[in-house]
Each structure stands twice: as C-alpha cells, then as structure tokens.
Amino acid sequence: SNSIFIPAFSVLAIAVMVNAVNFTDGKDGLAAGCTIFCSFTFAVFTYLMGHKVFAGYLDLPYISGIEEAVVFAFALCGCCIGFLWHNCHPASMFMGDTGSLALGGAISLLAVLVRQEILMFLVGGVFTMEFASVFIQRYYYKMTGKRVFLCSPIHHHFERLNWQESQIVVRFWILSGIFAMIALGTLKLR
C-alpha cells in the first residue's frame, strides 16, 4: 500500500503547492518574495541531505547526488531576487500564471527530491495560507451561503481591510521568513 500511497501523495502535494503559489501571485512581488525564502530553505535541506556527516548528525536521510539540487535551489532564489530587483513596486511587468505555476512547480520539485513533501507546506506557509483561504471560503460558502473572508485569497481580504499593497507584501514576506525559520528549526527536532 505504501508503494501506491507515496507517489499519489506526492502528486497531490505538487498540485496543491503549484496552485497555492498561483493564488499568491496577486500583488507586486508577493509570490517571488515568498519563493526566495522557500528556495533558500530547500537549498539548506538539499545541502545537508547530500552531505553524509551532516545528514547523519541531524538524523536526515542521506540522498546521494542531491548536491545538484542545491545549485537549482539557489538559482531559483537568485532568479526571484533578480525579478524583484528589476520589477519592484510598482511592477512594470507581471509574472502571470506562467511564472507563478513554474515557481510552484520548482518548489514542489525540491520538496519531492528531498522527500519533504509534508514539510513543504510549512516552508511555504504563506502559500499554504493562501490556498487554505480559498478552500475554506469556497466550501464554507457552498455549505452556508456566508463568507469567512471578505475576499479570497487572503491577501485580498487584507486589501479590503484597507491595508496598502506594500504592507500586505512586506508582512507576508516576514511571515514567509518566519515559516522558513520554523522549518529549519525542525532539523534538530527529528
């Protein structure tokens, strides 16, 4: 049963994260900024899991050959930094579905490579919040006819509460950093 469950769960996790990043891409730099924290965190995980001594010390599975994923994770991080540098608020160019779906796919790929699909939802906590807000809003409205949030995804809820775009983006970046630090903290909780 495990041989069927694990790939099925991985596919579901990938689909959820890809869509979650797409939901998050609604404000200038929001998805790219949060992806910086996610990709950096997965770069640390891939480095540690590709190093026998560190993996053994931290009780992580050693994954031979995963070192190349470190380069990919840092490249993803660098691409998002470059995107923000040249496209800071107000945006002159929009990422759109093509970019946000690719970012979600890249984050998911890193999580699958290091076998941390569940932890991916903590690493990408902001993305998880965005997806959960859409899910909750949709199904609660179907059941009761009432809304939980003023608008979903949740960054639009805060927009309706008169938060400025830069407030929403920077605060969500801060949350993304906090989620990333918590995820890195789990390295010693195993």
Question: How would you describe this protein?
Answer:
With 190 residues, the chain is mainly α. Helix content is 73%, strand content 0%. It is built from 9 helices and no strands. The protein has helices at residues 2-24, 30-49, 52-57, 67-86, 96-113, 120-123, 125-144, 154-160, 165-185. Helix 2 runs antiparallel to helix 4, helix 2 runs parallel beside helix 5 (96-113) and helix 2 (30-49) runs parallel beside helix 9 (165-185). It is globular, with a radius of gyration of 17 Å. It starts with a helix and ends in a 5-residue tail after the last helix. The mean pLDDT is 93.
Name the helix and strand elements from N-terminus to C-terminus, one letter apiece.
Answer: HHHHHHHHH
Helical fraction: over 70%
Please describe the biggest sheet, giving its number of strands, its sense, and whether it closes into a barrel. none
First-last Cα distance: 25 Å
DSSP strand content: under 5%
Give the rounded overall mean pLDDT: 93
Give me the secondary-structure category.
mainly alpha
Specify the overall morphology.
globular
Number of helices: 9
Low-confidence stretches: none
Task: Indicate the radius of gyration in whole angstroms.
Answer: 17 Å
User: What is the number of strand segments?
Assistant: 0
